[in-house]
Amino acid sequence: MQWEVVIGLEIHTQLATQSKIFSGSATTFGSAPNTQASLIDLGMPGVLPVLNEEAVRMAVKFGLAIDAEIGQHNVFARKNYFYPDLPKGYQISQMELPIVGKGHLDITLEDGTVKRVGITRAHLEEDAGKSLHEDFSGMSGIDLNRAGTPLLEIVSEPDMRSAKEAVAYVKAIHALVRYLGICDGNMAEGSLRCDCNVSVRPKGQAEFGTRCEIKNVNSFRFIEKAINTEVQRQIELIEDGGKVIQQTRLYDPNKDETRAMRSKEEANDYRYFPDPDLLPVIIDDAFLDTTRATLPELPPQKRERFQAQFGLSAYDASVLASSREQADYFEQVVGISGDAKLAANWVMVELGSLLNKQGVEIDASPVSAAQLGGMLKRITDNTISGKIAKMVFEAMANGEGSADEIIEAKGLKQVTDSGAISAVLDEMLAANAEQVEQYRAADEAKRGKMFGFFVGQAMKASKGKANPQQVNELLKQKLEG
Amino acid sequence: MHQLTLAEIAQGLAAKKFSSVELTQSLLARIAQLDPQLNSFITVTQDSALQQAKAADERRAAGETGALLGAPLAHKDLFCTQGIRTSCGSKMLDNFTAPYDATVVAKLAAAGAVSLGKTNMDEFAMGSANESSHYGAVKNPWNLEHVPGGSSGGSAAAVAARLLPAATGTDTGGSIRQPAALTNLTGLKPTYGRVSRWGMIAYASSLDQGGPLARTAEDCALLLQGMAGFDAKDSTSVDEPVPDYSATLGDSIKGLRIGLPKEYFSAGLDPRIAELIHASVKELEKLGAVVKEISLPNMQHAIPAYYVIAPAEASSNLSRFDGVRFGYRCEDPKDLTDLYKRSRAEGFGAEVQNRIMVGAYALSAGYYDAYYLQAQKIRRLIKNDFMAAFQDVDLILGPTTPNPAWKIGAKNNDPVAAYLEDVYTITANLAGLPGISMPAGFVDGLPVGVQLLAPYFQEGRLLNVAHQYQLTTDWHTRTPTGF
Q1: Å from B79 to nearest chain A CA?
Q2: What gap in Å lies between CA B84 and CA B98, rounded to an integer?
Q3: What residue stretches are annotated with the Asn/Gln amidotransferase domain (chain A) (predicted)?
Q4: Which of B461, B449, B440 is nearest to B393 (CA)?
Q5: In which element (H, E) is residue B50 found?
Q6: Domain of B241?
Q7: Taking CB atoms and an 8 Å limit, are A273 and B364 in contact across chains?
Q8: pTM for the complete prediction?
Q9: Is pLDDT above 80 for A147?
């Protein structure tokens, strides 16, 4: 049986406001427990919420960026349930009238095709606190620093058909919220968390299979693994004659399995109703216009511009546009070096692996855009070869200065004087007289292979500084001659 | 000294006939002597009251003036008071010391008012007899076997018994006006949004509104002046200027159009009360008011709608009392569920539990549309009725309650009978309108109140009419025997 996977995602993004959504407390991560919890965050008797306008602005920014209908009359509702880290016994969220309605986001898949993912809605809500079960023997601690942090919950349509597509979508949302400056995107700190709704159906079947929701997955890698694991579980279950039950499940990365948390029957009745402490939020056209004016160039536009302006492939353009910092870095390098394709390659390959190795983000890169641009300029003007450039790059990464300083200090300037190259070649050929004999005796096919040997020897003899093109030409003349 | 009204106290303090400390000492002594009969206070704050009185005297000596500077009053025990127990009449909050002041408390303190303590109330403001308090029933000073009304029964009984000149209350379905009527006081429920709800422990957020209880309209004007105003901490507070309520008390009411809703005078109203209400109408006509009959056709739906909306909101508002962070926690909980269940079962009284159950039911999946949404529609219809009526009249007049105060315990087995006592007051809460109850006579020695309702933010008009009425009547000056 051929199975089709259907995935819809709910992404919780923590909005990067200075203060909480309904109180003046700070939202800084990692402070000592309960030092950022005010009377309101503690749910003290008699306290009342006051909406943070900045959270509204950020949600509207997101809505405009995904071309969504903005809920110009949106309403906060109470989601009622008991949990120790939920101080009021209800979470203030949005139900029937969310701030962001239907929209969409285009994602680029690995083969370069673009897929449009529907976004059902996005709504504002407050985060809960945290229960701490370690360090308290026989008891639980409650930290309410996070309680009241603004969240934008982004709900997608069930439009994704593989774990890879799901990850591409999450990455696109991740890039977008960072572009917009509305979320720091720090998944390790829980700034962006994902619930994955997964079902399978026989290929060609119109109706969806029964879905399971995997709660709170917080890395790209785990999203992919969790979905694949869950898909496998569902297929095996059905093929063994079983039935998928609608459930909430948790992914355990250590065992690479999902486990049932609760079934639909056990699900809470949240008794949603409009929060009488908050008035409906009215967003007028003027607010929309001023917010729209603050939108930066977004990944899709940037991707298209990179393709059109620099002649990059769709894939390269989308990789480079995937984060604002990387796109800015790339454009700075292009500006200095003047060669976009070369810049794209260096930023994605050499710089990419350096950052990967050092485990840092591009905004903390040991090689600045100015340094890299300066070095690429020396490749394009033939001062150094691509091979030497790798040495220079390494030296820049070690903090040895600009490309020009390194080239100067290490004497890496390419030799383009044909007299000098000719002398090096003569010396090298004399030292390899036997191979020269063999070469001359060999047929065309063999000669091709042997030629590479002489180029290698020549570059070695010149310590890599000889202009490779000149070496090729002169060597050919000498061997043929 | 205990017979003085707020206005008279203001004059006496200004004329240096007595000091705030002297007045406070005298009233504290009276509370100690008489309150055991009434049970109107949950907490008497003797020390802080004397400190506040001393501070007020010093401010006055330094040249400051103000109608409330040095004036003694008390707060219903659901207004949070920093460092002082705020119990809401519940075992749940018996151990709760508020870490902050409600806006109303802070504003009155800033005006120099002296708080003598916290008054008894129905548990979480749920009730109209003040019998559901964890601290015991409050007695009506007019007849100690009778209820004082509720839920602001402690404030009403204390002011009626001349233990103090005025007190704060809150009104969710009549909890200021009904006890005012049953104890011969003047009590005003302001427009929703006129008085900040910050620090006022919520029963039903969309209906709750704080207001004054006093013996005269003149005093209600003084106290409301100190309570009203926009508060950025309450999103439902309305940014509307507060007029000088005392300044318009003397205005003529000649030509004032008063509507009598025929639904207010139908079956269920004690005919002796109807007679007194008509007598009060006659008095107002003598003062120049013009009376006409009107109709509020959706009034019959008000009680069912209220008893869906108020419990629904309460079921959510009271979720925070879970035994985790503050308030009552059961002994030795086995696990989290046990902690929740027993803390709430042991900490809340029966009426509170009833309403939480009703409210949770009304909000449940599958019932929400039939109950909560339906009730909200009724609410809109009731509001529309009033809007239509106020096209033709300036005020609406009727009885505050269908019956005078009943005997303590008489309605214990019939909650619906008790709920029906709110029939005339509830509509103002559903529509968010201001209303006042003022004394209109007695039936069997028990006070009867007449209620006036006005368009939004027309508290000044209510106080003006009540004051003019009180200039020509003396019901409000009657004092209960023994007090």
Answers
A1: 8
A2: 6
A3: 328-479
A4: B461
A5: helix B46-61
A6: 6-256+406-477
A7: no
A8: 0.90
A9: yes
What would the pLDDT profile of A231-253 be if each residue is shown by its tens digit?
999 999 999 999 999 999 999 99
Provide DSSP, A63-127: HHHTTPPB-SEE-EEEEE---TT-TTSEEEEE-SS-SB-SEEEEEE-TTS-EEEEEEEEEEEEE-
Q: Which residues contact A396 (CB under 8 A, 6 or more apart)?
A: A366, A367, A371, A372, A375, A402, A403, A406
Residue B425's contacts (CB-CB under 8 Å, 6 or more residues apart) are B171, B173, B174, B177, B178, B189, B400, B401, B435, B451
Q: Which residue is listed with tokens 């065309």? A: A444
Contact between B135 and B168 under an 8 Å Cβ cutoff? The reply is no
Token pair, residue B198, equals 């910050």
- Burial grade of B252 (CB within 10 A; 0-12, 13-18, 19 or more): exposed
Q: CB-based contact (8 Å) between B197 and chain A?
A: yes
Q: Which of A50, A269, A276 sits opposite B313 (nearest CB)?
A: A276
Residue B286 lies in a domain: no
CATH of the domain at B22: 3.90.1300.10
Residues B204, B190 contacting (CB under 8 angstroms): no
> Among partner residues A42, A82, A273, which is closest to B322 by beta-carbon distance?
A82
Nearest Cβ partner of B236 from A39, A89, A277? A277
* A405-450 pLDDT per residue, tens: 999 888 888 877 888 888 888 888 888 888 888 888 888 888 888 8
Chain B CB contacts of A96 under 8 Å are none
Longest dimension (CA), chain A: 99
CA distance A277 to chain B (A): 6
Amino acid at the residue A419: G
Identify whether B57 is part of a domain.
Answer: yes
3-state secondary structure of A311: coil
Instruction: With a cut of 70, list the residues of chain B below it in pLDDT.
Output: none
A122 CB-near residues (< 8 Å, 6+ apart): A59, A62, A63, A66, A68, A98, A99, A100, A103, A152, A153, A154, A155
Asked if residue B358 belongs to a domain, the reply is: no
Residues of chain A with CATH 1.10.10.410: 418-480
End-to-end CA separation in angstroms for chain A: 67
Q: How far, in Å, CA of B159 to CA of A472, rounded?
A: 109
Find out whether B322 and A82 touch, Cβ atoms under 8 Å. Answer: yes
d(CA B371, CA B356): 15
**Candidates B175, B237, B246, B280; catalytic one:** B175
How far is the CA of A157 from the CAs of A10, A164, A245, in angstroms? 9, 16, 21
C-alpha closest to that of A412 among A437, A436, A394, A398:
A394
Structurally, how many domains does chain B consist of?
1
Q: What is the mean pLDDT of chain A?
A: 92
Predicted pLDDT at A261 = 86
Question: CA B293, CA B392: separation in Å to the nearest integer?
Answer: 10
- Give the pLDDT confidence of A360-376 residue by residue, as tens digits: 989 899 999 999 999 99
Domain A418-480 has CATH 3.30.2320.30: no
pLDDT at A442 (0 to 100): 85
Per-residue pLDDT tens digits for B427-446: 999 999 999 999 999 999 99
Counting Cα atoms < 13 Å in the Cβ hemisphere of B49 gives 25
Q: Give the E-state strand segments of B289-358 in sequence order.
A: 290-294
pLDDT of residue A182: 97
Average pLDDT over residues A105-117: 88
